[in-house]
Amino acid sequence: MPQNNETCETLPAGRVSKIIQIHPSLNCNLQCKHCYSSSAPGIKKELAFDDLANIIGQAAEVGYNVISLSGGEPFLYQQLEELVRFSKAAGYFNSVTSNGMLLKGSRAKNILKHVDLVAVSIDGKEEQHDQMRCQTGAFKKMREGVAVLRDSIKSYGFIHTLLPDSWKILSWLAGFAIDEKASLLHLHPLEMSGRAIHTLGGSLFNQTNLYKIYISHYYLQTYFENDLFIQLDLLHRNNIRNNPNFVFHENCKPQLTITGFSSIFKELIINENGDILPIAHGCSPFFTIGNIYSGEKLSSMIDRFMQEKMNYVIDLFQTTYDSIMDDKEQEIVNWSEMVIRQSFTLFPLHAA
Ligand code: SF4
User: Fold this and answer.
1) Same structural domain for residues 322 and 225?
2) Which residues form the Radical SAM core domain (predicted)?
């Protein structure tokens, strides 16, 4: 969930990433402590391929160009091969976030032919990884999957869920990623949602550990400049002030055209229920644009959303921006988390 929409640095130069983040199912072979979606083994429900493909096809017409699949474990989605084949044919850059444990065998091999980027989740050294994943041997299996990626895909990387003391292992993580010949290390702060609320409720960031993470990232990105792209989903307040377009769509106008929609909402989310949301995964359902099963055209959903909700979106971004500028104590900011929290404060579940 990048804040500056630059996840796919492997897109051809000059193309801005406009991402559809899809959660096709919450089925997973693991049950990790930090899971933001409470994914687990044995969850049968998954999005119907035909309805999903229909919306993806329409989204390409309004400017979206990247598919980002997560979940759950995407490799458990029954029709993953059909899905990535379809989105590739529709012109998308296909990216998948995976725990890396199901990448062996001919099915995965066929799927990977249509995937441009895989981000494999990693929690630290073997013991720490297995502990967070609640499964002995998870690290070893993940490395076997990484070996498959090295042989079969152009670009792959690692994604690490940042905990307050993650700064202690960032240097190891960067070295590990380079040793494994990855091109990306994505650092995303722990989200207090799903299972993480119950298992890691006490793991809240304070400014000191945010500073340590921020500075370590800066140092490592400079040091490994030519070897690894390290993406951090945290921003300095001054950065936001100087570049409000990173986070605050100050040019939002209710009369905006449909094709301009993807320039404002560079990330569209399709959750496990088929709901289509802008802004960020986990934001208030008040902002739901529509649902893939509704039979309605995506352009009609967007049109209605812009007429009815755009002023509220502007309010949400402005209020979040103001709260960051007003809080002199907080310099390092997780914009995404703040905007999600603010969305529930301003627009609770059933507000109309
Ligand atoms: S964090 Fe990822 S691998 Fe772990 S349970 Fe959730 S979806 Fe599965």
Assistant:
1) no
2) 12-233
